Amino acid sequence: MSTPITNNSNTNATNAVIEKYKLQQPKQNDANTELGKNQFLELMITQMKHQDPLNPQKNEEFVAQLAQFSSVEGITNLNQTVESMASAFNSSQALQASALVGRKVLVPTSFSDLEAGGKVVGVIDIPQPINNLFVEIYSSSSNQPIKQMNLGKQLAGELDISWDGKDNNNQAQPAGKYRFKAYTQIDGKQVPLNTLLGANVNSVTLGGLNNVLLNVEGVQGEVRLNEVKRIQ
């Protein structure tokens, strides 16, 4: 009766390679990545040297091992590339945002500061054509509008507006904070419209990717960099 061949030399050689690298595990991340490549190649070569000559490894299995190694290597390199690109993009955003400190930007808000002898500019977002457009401006100390504007029929889009700092009686108003209200009337009901107004950027908060935030004067909470409509 024939005795089955057991490939002890293959098993022992493979185990020896594994034990060799087990003792070298606690290293830095870069070393671990390089160690994994070397370990894979040495294990594969050792298995080829000590494989059963009566039952050699099939070509398909060998190619599959190489493909697996290439896939892991490719994913590792891709991850490193994406991380580098993300870091560079975030740094670029931070530089752009820091250059805005002390400048005025148009952001989604209903409030804006009027400087002495200055004016307030902004944008009204009109989602669809409307038959009428009204803008009312309130001081911080009054519930009654100091200025009312009827801008008539408007097409869909973004409409630039400007206030010269004067009330309905053409009297110049003091510097300070003012609230803007834009709306249209449909079937006798007021439909509010979004406003974007100029405000000073006081500081910048740097977070992760796509998380550069602006601290804008007069705006509650922080504003994302991609929410800035225009730089004045």
From TrEMBL:
Keywords: Bacterial flagellum biogenesis, Cell projection, Cilium, Flagellum
Residues annotated as domain FlgD/Vpr Ig-like: 117-185
Pfam families, per database record: FlgD (PF03963), FlgD_ig (PF13860), FLgD_tudor (PF13861)
Domain of life: Bacteria
One BP term from GO: bacterial-type flagellum organization
Residue span, FlgD Tudor-like domain: 92-229
InterPro entries, A to Z: FlgD (IPR005648), FlgD/Vpr_Ig-like (IPR025965), FLgD_Tudor (IPR025963)
Family named by the database record: Belongs to the FlgD family.
Protein purpose: Required for flagellar hook formation. May act as a scaffolding protein.
Protein name per its UniProtKB record: Basal-body rod modification protein FlgD
Species annotation: Spartinivicinus marinus
Taxonomy of the source species: Bacteria, Pseudomonadati, Pseudomonadota, Gammaproteobacteria, Oceanospirillales
